[in-house]
Design a protein that fits this description.
It is globular, with a radius of gyration of 21 Å. It folds into two domains: 242 residues, 3-Layer(aba) Sandwich (Aspartate Aminotransferase, domain 2), CATH 3.40.640; 122 residues, Alpha-Beta Complex (Aspartate Aminotransferase, domain 1), CATH 3.90.1150.10. The protein is of the alpha/beta class. 43% of the residues lie in helices and 15% in strands. Strands 2-10-9-8-5-3-4 form a seven-stranded mixed β-sheet, sandwiched between helices. A three-stranded antiparallel β-sheet has the order 11-14-13.
């Protein structure tokens, strides 16, 4: 059969047609009333997407730029940052903090394991810290960290800001920044919102905003949340934004409103449960002991590397999965569930994986993975009904 390209990587994810159409439309000038109205709609939509009453700043950069902006805002000279490092993106927090000149207290976590809040407490009790940096979901291992429990440790400490990389956490899990006490929450355009890369978002709590107003932060120029907060509260941006991407974001956020945030999260949970059931029915092992619903990481079976499996899926079925990272490269493959996916996508990618593994010599009956996935779907499908197509 002729393969049709399908993107199941944890970012970029499957593109939303409405977002692509909005991105291709004629653009307004970024200092015009039309753009200010567009930015105002986007700000309202992002507050709903982040589940916050506070400001969410839009930045023209990658998700890593959003992480750097948040880290730069959180740093306080003379105080270290506590960094949870459970994989490639925890290591990125560490690298950003050190590049900005911060001292760090690293909490190293084994791949696939969530951080123990008791370890975070010990790091905080060792002396004042200006911030805790952690992932909501460590994408490299598909592992959820206990953000709510960590935030409870940070909240009573006035000098410490809770900074969360929510890039593959938002839109696929329950996230309550105001209730839990998350001060700086980072998102990106190419994940659950199913649009092109190029925009990052940072939710800013009242506690973080007051710290910024008091002059807190590392030296920075472009990625300056204080400057952007002041501008975006006037429905302006401090610098020229990616206007076409902001238009695409408006369409993507309208889609979230149409389907409902709870349905978006339930959809990811259903697809994730189907995928976990399928790969375990094939005798494969999950990387994570606390798996996320945004992405599943799986050890490749003996005799085939993750890279070979991914390559065969691409050539035979047009399916794109992600390889492992760093020490997990070629040992692990990763399958995304967040964003613009449905039941047909879920069973299609599971069937494709099973087909390639059967060709590889895996000793299971054809249909084993699909049967396990469909059983899981039948348990959960009432939670994701009523979502309009397209």
């Amino acid at each position: 059969m002729i393969p049709k390209p399908r993107l199941f990587t944890p970012g970029p994810t499957m593109p939303l047609p409405q977002a692509a159409q909005a991105e291709a439309a004629p653009m307004p000038h970024h200092r015009s009333p039309e753009f200010r109205a567009l930015l105002g709609r986007v700000q309202r939509g992002l507050r709903a997407f982040f589940n916050t009453r506070q400001d969410v700043v839009v930045l023209t950069c990658s998700g890593t730029g959003g992480m750097e902006a948040a880290c730069a805002a959180a740093i306080q000279p003379g105080l270290p940052v506590v960094v949870v490092n459970g994989g490639r993106f925890g290591a990125r927090w560490l690298e950003i903090a050190r590049a900005l000149g911060a001292q760090t207290r690293e909490i190293r976590v084994a791949p696939g394991q969530p951080v123990d809040p008791a370890d975070v407490k010990r790091a905080l009790d060792a002396g004042p810290a200006c911030a805790v940096l952690v992932q909501g979901c460590e994408t490299s291992t598909a592992t959820l960290h206990p953000v709510r429990e960590i935030a409870a440790l940070v909240r009573p400490r006035p000098e410490t800001l809770m900074c969360v990389d929510g890039i593959t956490w938002l839109g696929a899990h329950e996230v309550r920044p105001d209730e839990w006490g998350i001060d700086l929450l980072v998102g990106a355009s190419q994940k659950a919102l199913s649009m092109a890369p190029g925009l990052a978002f940072v939710g800013v709590s009242e506690k973080a905003a007051k710290a910024l107003e008091a002059g807190r932060g590392a030296p920075r120029y472009y990625l300056d949340l204080r400057r952007e907060l002041a501008a975006q509260r006037q429905q302006e941006t401090a610098f020229t934004p990616a206007v076409s991407l902001v238009a695409a974001l408006d369409a993507a956020l309208q889609r979230v409103t149409e389907v409902g945030q709870d349905n978006l999260v339930a959809n990811a949970a259903c697809f994730a449960a189907m995928s976990r059931a399928a790969v375990q029915a094939l005798g494969l092992k999950l990387v994570s002991s606390r798996p996320a619903d945004s992405v599943t990481a799986v050890y490749a079976p003996e005799g085939i590397t993750a890279g070979e499996l991914i390559s065969r899926l691409q050539s035979r079925h047009g399916v794109s999965l992600a390889n492992g990272q760093d020490e997990l490269r070629n040992l692990v493959f990763r399958l995304a569930h967040l964003g613009f996916y449905d039941y047909i996508d879920a069973v299609g990618v599971i069937a494709a994986m099973e087909d390639v593994l059967l060709d590889h010599g895996l000793k299971v009956a054809p249909g084993t993975a699909l049967a396990a996935a469909q059983q899981e779907y039948r348990k959960r499908s009432p939670r994701v009904t009523g979502v309009p197509p397209g």
